[in-house]
Amino acid sequence: MWIAKPIAALTGDEARRWSAVTAERRKRDPDTPLAQTLTWARAAEATGARAWVVFSTDEPVGGILLGYGDELDCVNGPLIDWADPDKGMRQLATFAQGASKMVAGLARMELHPRWPRERASEWSQSVPLEIDRTDLAATRILGLEAKDSEQIDGFSPRLKRTLRQSLSRVMDSGWEPLDAAAVDPFLERMADFARDAEVTIPPQAWFAPFLTDGSEIQLWRAWASLGVDGVESASAEVVIALYGSRAHYLFGYQRRADGAPGALSASAVAQFLAIRGSHAAGAETYDFNGWIEKTGPDHPYAGVNAFKEQFGGEVLAYSIPRFVIEA
């Protein structure tokens, strides 16, 4: 049975059915994207989008679409059996038909499935739609080890030295679930960093769906403050999403005082606390949320890449074709 509804109109049972679909997809692929969860869609609605879901409880397949004016956009979806041409194309046709009937006056629908780079050429040959364009993306995934010492063994020599020195200078640190009271202070501290780094952070309303009972995604935060002679020299905080067996780094900042020793890294300590805390919470892998391929030394992301690379892990590369369906 296929269901096509605005997510706000789903019954409790229907919402559980879609969550069961994504849970089943995660069993097949731990890389199932956050963007296809009800919680992520509700966060998008809290900031002005509209969200619908079209899915089959039998196979299980489907996808969440976000509406902007007379257009629909399926981000990192739909979740269908792309590896099976016969099943996948039948599912794609049913999904597109169901989606097209949900919005009166629909002018355009875009699908942006996230495919493993090594399968993209094969899978694209079975899709009876022209690819408007293909975007490339990547991220770095770290396996989580049972013991702190085993995790640290995989770090670079430089990161091991940085952590050793930084951990000896910790004035305050912690790892705990993010609650509503902590959101505004985090956003205030994040604002200056985001402006300087030219990154976008969501408004307070975006966080609310993650903090409700029944959310598939739990948000946690790790923080660290480092000092020299009792005076804070650097601080950092990160927000992590726990979803199934994977932890996802979402947001973070570091602040450094003038003259702070270069060997001290509050960011390294906060990430280490998040990595170990994620393992304790049941995660098996940690997604650093982004990796820019082929960065030269002058690339603005080169330093971020170098920081993440110190933790080890492997790079997962994606192809994201854009299929455009005009009404």
Give the SSE map.
Blueprint: E1 2-6, H1 12-28, H2 38-46, E2 50-56, E3 61-68, E4 71-75, H3 85-100, E5 108-112, E6 115-116, H4 120-124, E7 131-143, H5 148-153, H6 157-167, E8 170-177, H7 180-197, H8 204-207, E9 218-228, E10 231-243, E11 246-256, H9 266-280, E12 285-287, H10 302-309, E13 314-326
Parallel strand pairs: 4-5, 11-12
Antiparallel strand pairs: 1-2, 2-3, 3-4, 5-13, 6-13, 7-12, 7-13, 8-9, 9-10, 10-11
Q: What would your notes on this structure say?
A:
The protein has 327 residues and is an alpha+beta fold. It is built from ten helices and 13 strands. A hairpin with a 2-residue loop joins strand 9 and strand 10. It is globular. The chain starts with a strand and ends with a strand. The model has no long low-confidence stretch (mean pLDDT 94).
Percentage of residues in helical conformation: 25-40%
Give the uncertain stretches in residue-range form.
none
Average pLDDT level: 94
Give the assembly state of these chains: single chain
Q: What general outline do the C-alpha atoms trace?
A: globular
Report the β-strand fraction as a percent range. Answer: 25-35%
How many helices? The count is 10
Strand tally:
13
- Compute the CA-based radius of gyration: 21 Å
What is the structural class?
Answer: alpha+beta
Q: Could you give the order of the helices and strands? A: EHHEEEHEEHEHHEHHEEEHEHE
Largest sheet, in brief, is: 13 strands, mixed
In angstroms, what separates the terminal alpha carbons? 25 Å
